[in-house]
């Protein structure tokens, strides 16, 4: 199993680098460009949530991103230093300008798991069967 770790401050300016790193990692793991970009976009949304809702833009708090590759999938765990947010219970208002990040993540990857007690989101994207 291949594992990598990144740690960034709660600064939205870090998002572009995270997204590019995840897409590059997914391509090296054998994903085509489109599914690699889908995973990177989902991670982007999870990191936005961690910065905004978990760490509340506090520059003294960090976001950790752990990337793991197995034979079947790529798994990305995004963890903030905040108290956790009940994202799974958040209602989705289709007319709102915001609040659709979790639904977007669910549309881009195969599994999304959130934690109620800590600020953690796990994203899983399965590899294509040959």
What features would you describe in this structure?
The protein has 130 residues and is of the alpha+beta class. It has one domain (2-126): 2-Layer Sandwich (Heat Shock Protein 90). The protein has helices spanning 15-28, 33-54, 101-108; strands spanning 2-9, 62-69, 73-79, 111-114, 120-126. Strands 1-2-3-5-4 form a five-stranded antiparallel beta sheet, covered by helices on one side. A hairpin with a 3-residue loop joins strand 2 and strand 3. The longest helix has 22 residues, at 33-54.
Overall body shape? globular
Uncertain residue segments: none
What's the end-to-end separation, in Å? 19 Å
> Describe the biggest sheet?
5 strands, antiparallel
Q: What percent of residues are in strands?
A: 25-35%
> Over the alpha carbons, how many angstroms does the gyration radius reach?
14 Å
Question: What's the CATH architecture name?
Answer: 2-Layer Sandwich
Name of the CATH homologous superfamily: Histidine kinase-like ATPase, C-terminal domain
| Quantity of strands, as a count | 5
> What is the spatial order of strands in the main beta sheet?
1-2-3-5-4
